[in-house]
Fold this sequence. Notes:
By secondary structure, the protein is mainly α. Among the domains are: 1-220, Alpha Horseshoe (Serine Threonine Protein Phosphatase 5, Tetratricopeptide repeat); 785-945. Helices cover 74% and strands 0% of the residues. The protein is built from 45 helices and no strands.
Amino acid sequence: MMRPRKPMPPLARLSLTLISAAVLAACGSKALKDTGPSIKTLSKQDAPTQEELPIVLSAPVAASPELALENYRAIMNLAPDPQTRAEAMRRMADLQLDVRDLSPGEDGERLLGSSIKLYEELLAESPEDSNNDRVIYQLARAYQNSGQEDLAIQTLQRLAKQHPDSSFVGDGRFRRAEMLFQLARYDEAGAEYKRVLELGDATPFFENSQYKYGWSLYKQGLHDESLDVFFTILDRELPPGELVEPETALAQVASNKRDLTASVIKVTGLALTAMGGGPALGEALSKRGEPRFYVLLYNALGSALLEKQRYTDAAGTYAAFTQRYPSHPLAPRFQSQLIQAYADGGFSEQVVEAKAHYARTYDPDAEYWGGAPMSDEVRTALRGHLEDLARYHHAAAPEAGAQARERYLAAAGWYQRLLEVYPSDPAAPELNFLFADALLDGGETARAAEQYTRTAYDYPAHDRSAEAAYAAVLAYQSLITVAAAEQRLAAVRTAVDSGVRFADNFGEHPQVLAVLTRSAEDLYQIESYDEAIQIARRVAQHVPPADPALQRIVWGVIADAEFTQQRFDLAENAYSQLLLRVPAEDAKRVELIERLATSVYKQGEAARAAGELRTAVSHFLRLSTVTPTASIRPNSEYDAAAVLIELEDWNEAARVLEAFRLHFPQHALVPDGDKRLASVYEKAGRPADAAGAYQRIAGRLTESIETRQAAAWRAGELYDEAGQPRLAAAAWEIYVNSFPQPLDDAMDARERLVQLAQERGDQSAYRRWLDAIVNADQNAGPTRTDRSRSLAAESALTLGRLDAADAASRVLTLPIKDSLPPKRAALQQAIRRLDQAAGYGFAEVTTAATYALGDLYRDFARDLIDSERPRNLNELELEQYELLLEEQAFPFEEQAIGYHETNLKRIANGIYDQWVRQSYLALEKMVPGQYAKNEQQERVYESLR
């Protein structure tokens, strides 16, 4: 409670004015450290002006101080009575002191010294004078004004001891305390201030002494004790009610008390700072109880620390409040001030922690609110803190190394809460986008995709709608690659739906076609082919056209999807479109050409399966035009030929197969093609062409021996059929040389070669193949057969006949010795051949050979007889020569008769053929006496039998 103040006595007012002047003079003449605020400044409202001072003892007011002094000096020269002299001395000393205050300088110092001398003389002359209390007081003033503070202090102490009841004691003690304070003698000053306070209402210096007493305690380091004094002052001076802000409270303090109150608030903060700041304030309040201005003290202390740039201590003060009063309505504000203190000090990490604490503690769902609605002030602050926290962690994550994911998810958490608390915030779309970004970077791709989608579609259109929609698509697409097998279908579906939604809503976005392309690819992968085609065609048909790379992809999707669904006509069109967009040098062209070719080929297969054979042929054959380089082209042309064969279109089938052989001579189907071609040629009535095909088959070593042999045989037959003897001969010769076994077939082939040689009149070949037959049989060993022997026998016979003819053709001319050996050699050759033929044991051959031998000998004998005669012989010599020839020819005739008769003897064995008959006819001519008579023929026949 503020003490009621009593009226100040006139003398006290005068003393106050004089001593205040002295103190002020002292303050102005000497600078002291930590002196505290000036009393003149703090309580000038209590210091009366000069005009308010009454005249002591009815003394006249001098018009001039100098004139008054002269008058007092004159009185002194008159040797007045002691009382008058003493009064005059006091007046002179007081007046000189006042003049000195008004006119400092050399004269003023002289006057000041004179006043001190007069006061000392007065005290010395009248030590028991009842007015000495005033003299001592003025002497102390003079000492102080002259700079003799110690003497002033001692003099004021003398006043208190000698005149304890003087009206000047309170003033004197206050002045003495002030000088001690200025001299930093705080313990002494404090004691003096305390004595002034003990005077209570009896002194006008109570409040000032109280203030300076608190300062004295503070200066001594007695901070806790000083708080009792300062709290008392504040309780008295501050306006009623609970107070929060110092500035607001001071504005309600009386103007003449405002500076002092502000100073008390400040020094209280200094004391608390020295005691440990906010925690010390809490302890002080615990000890004393919370005054109504305790909130103000926390604010003032924090502000004081901030002024000194002690940001951490300031923050600690604000934290102390929130810890001591966690449920206080102003706790959020103190937390905000704490945050600002850290921010001002540049403590970014602490700012983040403090904001996080704010966000958790004052969240609308936090315990702090107890179900009550959040205040507007907190709502505004919380909004900022949540965003700051989210953005801080988001920005710090890229540099966080191993903690990056944790940082991203922390950012995501703050973004999420911000959006939950402020769903209608103007920045919500942007914040939702950042929320999604943080989730994505934090590895929460599925949640990120959901939030991108929300950003894009759940808010009114905004600047990042399209970007968010695209980001959602990318996120959903990335989930496909990590989805488990059983979840992949759903992941693709979600991604595709997102992509289509993006394209439908943001058709102008530069990535729309790329997204649709990816969607088409994904749909193809999950075998949703029609949907894939539908979306791919959106890209393919887009105006303006999509990027070539995208066009290639979507046409590829369309083509593959149509192909997979066996819509090969549509697949063909799509592959054709795709190839138009693939550079010639692109390695993928080969594969695409193959797919296009397959599409055409499959159409052919489908038509064939449906019984549309002509259509099938058309597809198979046009493949060579559509994709001439395709690897399937040979198969396609071959299949075309097969269908043509099925249609019995032999000539067209042959043409296709011929083209196949021409274009693909090394193809694996060529061997089979030759077989088909051979058959087609035969059915088309083209035996020579068929024979050529069979010859190729026969010469192909990859074929089985049976196939080759059969083909070689058929080639010979067909050349024969075609009337191509030379080609037939070549074919049969190939057969003989290539396939000596089975022997009978080879012998038949040699026989045909004999026939062909004979037909064309090639005697050399004729004899060679006859001889080959004979040799083949002779060399056949165990494979020799009756057939081979029969042919060999006939061949040997024919050769014998040829040799016989050769021998017969050789004419015996002169000189006989020259012409006879060749003829004899030919004769012997013929005999060997004919004997050989006869030796095979075949009756018809043996009879023919026997007949030929007889005929051979007969002709030789005749040739001898008919040979040329020497021209120089006379008739006798000629006769003798002819007799000689007959003698030479006779044995040959006998041998001829013998061979023919041998033939006739075979009749007895049941052998009677033309050659037996021919032998008989020959005998009939050669031995007519025995064989010429008809009636004898039967006897001869019977005898021979």
